[in-house]
Amino acid sequence: MTPFGEKLRELRRFRGVSQKEMAAGLGVSAADLSALEHGRRGAPSWAMVQKIIGYFNVIWDEAEELEQLAARSNPRVVIDTAGLSPQATALANRLGSRFASLGQTELAAIDAVLQAPSKR
Question: Rounded to whole angstroms, how far apart are CA atoms 20 and 9?
Fold first, then answer.
């Protein structure tokens, strides 16, 4: 599941709306909506995010949060290390091969390092 999919499911359940009802309201199939919630599709388009914002009639901070989550919700990330150091390529490959086996503690530690201000 992606961060956007998790938030979408949370909003939908909080409002008491089924996937089928929401899909009809957005003009998409229930299968497409399910795939979006479960991260089996790429990040949602700007237009889809705007439809969802309108569907739930959210404003300001919550609308901005949905837009930011959508931007961080591509389940198929590619890391291009062309032109970078061999160390960068090796790290990207190690991360790719072990990513699925990382636990929540390890993911949180990596995330904390990546969110810290750069010291360059």
Answer: 13
